[in-house]
Design a protein that fits this description.
The protein is an alpha/beta fold. The protein is built from 37 helices and 16 strands. Among the domains are: 1-97, Serine Threonine Protein Phosphatase 5, Tetratricopeptide repeat, CATH 1.25.40; 474-520; 534-650, no CATH class; 662-853, 3-Layer(aba) Sandwich (Rossmann fold), CATH 3.40.50. β6, α31 (689-697) and β7 (701-704) form a beta-alpha-beta unit. It is globular and about 100 Å long. This is Tetratricopeptide repeat protein. Residues 606-836 form the CHAT domain.
Length: 855
């Protein structure tokens, strides 16, 4: 019962001990309490009760009872880090038990071998146990043994064997009432899905397992560890680190298993490095190494050493000793048959290259490169990265480009299995090194055109295909409705000065639930999206339009000037300096949004001149007088480009990539699309431009007051030719897909827009922060604007800074006047800026808005 209904089993065991039981029954009761405390509570109490259980079994003179207790005690001792004592208990248990009981003891020793990382010994004990358990028709223990065998197969990389055992075990579990074991089986299937490369299915199954555990009231430390691994593969390293650290705190709070703490520390260390915190990774990994060593868990200790070496290398430590350590770890992992062995060889080769030890590097990289032909996607990418580094060391630019292409093709296939745009964007981080290697090789040998192709390779790839539509999931839809209600109540409370902690907690809970459900979606589009074609781009640009793509190589901006049938390259300034200057410009625009800040205008203009030198360099003199499209890297998405002197007076648009500009340029407007005007609540001007625009357009659909509710707004936006939304915008840096526009019934978020069949062909967002985006992955952007572009929107006007609401109104009216005259959004915005009063407030307001896309 302890794995069917843990709480009820604990209650009954305690009641039995209160009733003065016989030694045999007392042994069972103490063992149940020991199991409960071992797996769900305090390990010290577990050892106390299990020793009492053994004493009672000895008094009852039952060899099988004593053998069974010794097996449970052996597991507890190993989890407490007392490995030698635990294995000795198993030796006595195997000797004392007979037949069926011995098979159960062997199963539990196999579990311990798995915990310790002795996979061959684990398989041998399971091989001896399963036939006996089957012959005894012991369904529960046979299912447990099959589940364990599958888990060991996964650790060895044998995914197909694991899936066969998981399937057989699940069929047996369906005939039992073992709810905890069933939850464990679902969790294990999630791990198998992850190992086979299906991240959305893994997340869905792990969430389902967590719900099952929650109904039983049992902790989920193993599940936390597995979810960390999946989150890492999905590019969600900060979330993985937070999950691991929270689980460690909870485990410490209940005096839980030392073995699980070591595994959680390893998970935290693995997550901290890609989360940008190598020093935390070093601290967590070093502690995990000490714990694993004390627990005599060599397999785990070796994996922790790999993470420790990776973290030290990420912190800038490179030495011959580190190369030797990485090589030793690679050798040990290979002897274990661990799938991480190529990763360790790649690390040894990478460090050796940094030291100039080319012969050593070649030896280690050649070993790592063998993994490029088979295995899960990330393992194959490790192999292709090693092959690319080998080619680079050999001076073969062609070899570098071929290896990078093959590796990124693997990433594309993996990325397109992900349905959620957030996961697609973050997954590109795995290919950042390959893209950078290819760009360097192109810069040396391939000329500007090839550099442009590789600059586009991992830039805004999430926009290359529409996201998978969220399913018509009643729970998801009701969660979105509840989220809007809570967010609306919280906003009202803030405005009235009332406390909102309870509402904010519920809002965060609903956000986690919604995000979790969207991450479960699988991708539906085969292949990696459209391939970028330089010739097609130059043809579309013609002789008038210039596209300026900014690539970053080794921290310096490379300007690729495309148009008039050719691609030219210019070198500009340092990216870090440009980012700092862009922050100064943003701060200046925030000040200029308020009357009385005229003295700041020269400061902003001077910062704009410095930005131009850093970002365009000598290319600024070659822009001519025609329209310009700027394609910045993700880290420069907040630059208000109209502040740069050479761009201030011209037709200017911004695009996340040259490929997305091409798609926008070729997007056909809807033949019978309508105009939609939306006015949200709480605006300082009341959205004063909307009534005037309604009079101008006549037949436009106007949604305001109680009609501006999210379901109705989405219904009208779907397939519209033009939408103008005057509503407060909120950018969420912590969760960009919950960036929102405020409607009458609460926020409309990016997740809502992704449910549209076709977003408006043109859309104007007239309030603050609507153009702010989060840079994630290799060079991806998440936010309101990027949610619209792959859904049929060809052009967006939005704002990247706080603006003065009153100054926005005349700018918007002038913008629509240009659209009436047949101008594009970029042309109309240029003319609207020129038509504004010459004071600082209106000038800064015009600079804060940008046109995106090509419509």
């Amino acid at each position: 019962m302890v794995f069917a209904d843990p709480g009820e089993a604990l209650t009954r065991a305690r009641a039995l001990l209160d009733a003065d039981p016989s030694p045999l029954d007392a042994s069972v009761a103490h063992q149940v309490i020991g199991i409960w405390q071992r797996d769900f509570g305090d390990l010290r109490l577990a050892l106390h009760h299990l020793r009492r259980a053994r004493e009672c079994a000895a008094r009852a003179d039952s060899a099988d009872r004593e053998a069974d207790v010794l097996a449970t005690l052996g597991v507890a001792l190993v989890h407490a880090g007392r490995t030698r004592e635990g294995l000795a208990a198993f030796e006595r248990g195997v000797a004392r038990g007979g037949g069926h009981t011995r098979a159960r003891v062997l199963y539990r020793r196999a579990y311990v071998w798995w915990v310790l990382g002795h996979h061959r010994e684990a398989l041998e004990d399971v091989r001896r146990a399963v036939p006996v358990l089957r012959q005894a028709d012991d369904v529960i223990w046979t299912a447990r043994a099959l589940t364990l065998r599958a888990t060991v197969h996964l650790a060895l990389g044998a995914v197909e064997r694991a899936e066969a055992d998981f399937t057989a075990a699940e069929a047996l579990w369906d005939t039992t009432g073992q709810e905890h074991d069933k939850a464990d089986a679902v969790e294990s299937r999630g791990l198998a899905a992850f190992r086979s490369g299906d991240v959305p299915a893994a997340l869905r199954l792990l969430d389902e397992a967590e719900e099952r555990y929650a109904r039983l009231g049992t902790p989920t430390f193993m599940l936390n560890i597995r979810r960390c691994e999946v989150l890492m593969a999905a590019g969600l390293a900060p979330e993985a680190l937070a999950e691991a650290d929270a689980a460690i705190g909870k485990l410490d709070g209940i005096g839980g298993q030392s073995t699980r703490k070591a595994e959680l520390l390893l998970a935290a260390a693995r997550a901290a490095r890609p989360a940008g915190d190598p020093h935390t990774a070093i601290a967590r990994a070093a502690l995990a190494v000490r714990l694993f060593a004390g627990q005599r868990r060599t397999w785990w200790e070796t994996h922790a050493r790999l993470v420790l070496i990776e973290a030290r290398h990420a912190a800038g430590r490179g030495s011959g000793r580190l190369v030797a350590d990485a090589a030793a770890v690679a050798g040990k992992l290979a002897s274990f048959g661990a799938p991480a062995a190529p990763e360790a060889s790649l690390l040894a080769g990478r460090i050796a290259l940094g030291l100039g030890w080319t012969a050593d590097a070649e030896r280690h990289l050649a070993v790592a490169a063998r993994s490029r032909r088979s295995g899960p996607p990330l393992a194959r990418m490790t192999g292709w990265a090693a092959q690319a580094l080998r080619a680079q060391a050999a001076g073969s630019a062609r070899g570098v480009l071929e290896a990078c292409r093959r590796g990124l093709d693997v990433l594309d296939d993996h990325r397109m299995t992900l349905g959620a745009s957030e996961l697609r964007a973050r997954a590109t981080e795995q290919g950042a090194e390959l893209a950078a290697l290819a760009q360097r090789a192109s810069l040396v040998s391939g000329g500007p055109r090839r550099l442009l192709v590789w600059s586009e390779r991992l830039r805004a790839t999430v926009l290359s295909t529409p996201p998978t539509r969220p399913p018509a999931d009643p729970e998801l839809l009701s969660g979105m409705t509840a989220f809007r209600e809570i967010a609306s109540r919280a906003e009202a409370a803030r405005m009235e000065g009332r406390p909102v902690p309870a509402l904010e907690r519920e809002q965060r809970r609903l956000e986690r639930e919604i995000r979790s459900r969207t991450l479960h979606m699988r991708g539906e589009v085969p292949g990696g999206g459209h391939r970028f074609d330089v010739g097609r781009l130059l043809e579309r640009l013609g002789d008038e339009v210039l596209l300026v793509e900014l690539a970053v190589l080794d921290g310096r901006v490379q300007v690729l000037l495309c148009g008039r049938g050719r691609v030219r390259r210019f070198e500009a300034g340092l990216l870090a300096a440009a980012e700092t200057e862009a922050e100064h410009v943003q701060a200046g625009l925030r000040r200029l949004a308020h009357p009385g800040a005229e003295a700041r205008l020269p400061v902003v203009e001077a910062a704009g001149r410095r930005l131009e030198e850093l970002l365009l360099g000598p290319a600024a003199a070659h822009l001519g007088g025609g329209p310009v499209v700027i394609v910045p890297p993700g880290r420069l998405h907040r630059v208000p480009w109209a502040v740069l002197p050479s761009l201030r007076e011209r037709v200017l648009s911004v695009s996340p990539s040259a490929g997305s500009w091409l798609r926008a340029r070729e997007t056909v407007p809807p033949p019978d699309g309508c105009h939609v005007l939306v006015r949200g609540p709480g605006l300082a001007t009341g959205g004063a431009e909307v009534p005037e625009l309604a009079g101008r357009y006549g037949c436009a659909t106007v949604l305001e007051d109680d009609e501006a509710r999210v379901p109705r707004v989405l219904e009208e936006l779907d397939g519209a030719a033009l939408a103008h939304i005057a509503a407060h915008g909120t950018f969420r840096a912590d969760s960009p897909l919950f960036s929102s526009l405020r409607m009458a019934d609460g926020p409309i978020v990016v997740h809502d827009f992704e449910r549209l069949d076709r977003s408006p062909y043109r859309i104007i967002l007239s309030c603050c922060d609507t153009a702010r985006l989060a840079s994630v992955g290799a060079d991806e952007l998440l936010g309101l604007v990027t949610a619209l572009l792959p859904l049929g929107t060809a052009g967006v006007v939005a704002c990247s800074a706080p603006v003065n609401d009153a100054a926005v109104v005349p700018l918007m009216l002038a913008l629509h006047k240009g659209l009436d005259a047949g101008l594009s959004l970029a042309e109309a915005l240029r003319d609207a800026r020129a038509a504004q009063p010459g004071d600082t407030l209106h000038q800064a307001t015009g600079w804060a808005f940008s046109a995106f896309g090509a419509a």
